[in-house]
Design a protein that fits this description.
The chain is an all-alpha fold and about 450 residues long. α2 runs antiparallel to α12 and α17 runs antiparallel to α18. The longest helix is centred in the first third of the chain and has 33 residues.
């Protein structure tokens, strides 16, 4: 850890120095996000080798995992925005009190959702058409996983405080610790015991405890901990959560519902299709990490500049972020499409499951260039006061994917019809989302500068 990252001294004034400012920040953020997103990919690969049943149950849990991701990202983004603005304004002493205030709200909300999910698990099994032989295992797994996810909530606020403060490597250390412990736990318990899919909730809980410990240490070392400060209630936490976090969380809920809808649409085509699609989805989650990191990095820089009163730099920051994203995804989209067969074999050991993953990537792979730009600009607009805009853009995208894609797949009796729908929506999105984001950034830059 460098002296610059760990020193508690006052940060230097924030100024716009060019694309390298975004690139350096995005690289560090991507390290942590890649670890977080790579975990489901590795877990699915491990589950496939533990047993076909374990992989199937884990695949069904993907939309429910997105529900917890909705809560996580709502608090994460709200706190990151607050920390970024405080950093730009030279008020680092405000970072942890705001995070602690959000924690009080979050523990109640997160706990309520976990209990509701545990109660609703049998109904979800019926809704997803889970075979009777697998229903009991799915219900038990869902309940234990919901309980284990409670432990991860405090680490979300610690890592987002560090990122917003301009210390992404410290934040990455928190995420990397949790990810490493979780994957190691699944590997050790999954192959060394008879726990099967139930090794995952235990591993999640262990990873949460380890990440929380590292997060507390990093916050202390970075000088953000003030005596008695974190215990002071900060009402601005409510404003950040309602204006930023709520629209972002609702967008993720839309994604979770859409994920469940797509599994419902693919259900009649058999478990191989469901598992193959889920494997491709896990790979896609990893693929959008660079876009997520670039969107967050661009937003952090922009919010720090807003906090410092440098409102006119917004369009230049956005242009730099868009150029970096376009270059990265021109390479990634081609690589995924060309390497779809070895990637599918890596994700799934079963030939039938692997073949379905190849089909998905052959149709959708090249449109990942569009998806990268869409994700980057959506994440940016969410963090600069456009959460409602992002929500209104997400609803037709995911709604169209489920409604139109489901109709096409079921009427043509071919799951690839749904994949073509996803590809078409990616292409349509790139014609709309970056333009709307550009107009929003220019507008807030003019309004705040006046």
């Amino acid at each position: 850890m460098s002296t610059q990252e760990t020193s508690p001294s006052a940060p230097a004034a924030v100024v716009w120095t060019g694309p390298g400012q975004i690139r350096r920040l995005a690289t560090a953020i991507a390290l942590g996000e890649a670890a977080g997103v790579l975990v489901p990919v590795v877990v699915i690969a491990l589950m496939a080798r533990i047993s076909t049943e374990a992989m199937y149950v884990r695949s069904l849990y993907v939309p429910l995992a997105l529900l917890f991701a909705a809560l996580q990202v709502g608090f994460d983004v709200s706190n990151q925005v607050a920390a970024s603005v405080s950093r730009g304004a030279g008020r680092s002493q405000d970072v942890l009190p705001v995070a602690a205030s959000m924690a009080r709200i979050g523990l109640a909300v997160w706990g309520a959702v976990s209990v509701a999910l545990m109660v609703a698990a049998p109904g979800l099994a019926s809704l997803l058409s889970v075979p009777e032989a697998s229903a009991g295992e799915f219900v038990a797994f869902t309940r234990w996983a919901a309980l284990a996810n409670l432990i991860f909530f405090p680490t979300v606020l610690l890592s987002s405080s560090l990122r917003g403060q301009g210390r992404p490597r410290s934040a990455a250390a928190v995420v990397l610790t949790g990810a490493t412990v979780e994957v190691a736990g699944v590997a050790i318990l999954g192959f060394g015991t008879d726990l099967g899919v139930f090794s995952l909730p235990i591993a999640i809980a262990a990873g949460g405890v380890a990440a929380l410990t590292v997060g507390a240490v990093q916050v202390y070392r970075c000088g953000l901990w003030q005596v008695r400060g974190p215990m002071v209630w900060r009402s601005e936490a409510i404003g950040r959560l309602t204006s930023v976090g709520l629209p972002v969380a609702v967008s993720f809920i839309v994604m979770a519902v859409a994920g469940a809808g797509l599994l419902w649409a693919l259900g009649p085509f058999g478990t191989d299709v469901v598992s193959g699609y889920s494997a491709a989805g896990a790979l896609q989650n990893l693929l959008i990490v660079p876009a997520s990191a670039l969107g967050s990095a661009t937003a952090i820089v922009l919010n720090q500049l807003r906090g410092a009163g440098r409102h006119g730099d917004g369009p230049a920051v956005l242009r730099a972020g868009l150029r970096l994203t376009a270059v990265v995804y021109a390479v990634l989209a081609a690589a995924i499409w060309l390497g779809r067969e070895p990637l599918a074999e890596l994700l799934a050991d079963d030939p039938a499951v692997s073949a379905e993953t190849v089909t998905f990537l052959a149709i959708v792979g090249l449109t990942y260039f569009c998806l990268g730009l869409n994700v980057m600009t959506l994440l940016l607009v969410e963090q600069v006061g456009g959460g409602l805009i992002a929500l209104l853009l997400n609803v037709p995208y995911f709604g169209g994917m489920v409604v139109l894609g489901s109709i096409m797949a079921r009427t043509q009796h071919d799951p690839s019809a749904l994949y073509w729908t996803i590809a078409a929506l990616n292409l349509c999105g790139v014609l709309i989302v970056p333009l709307i984001t550009w107009r929003h950034v220019r507008r807030i830059s003019r309004v705040e500068a006046s």
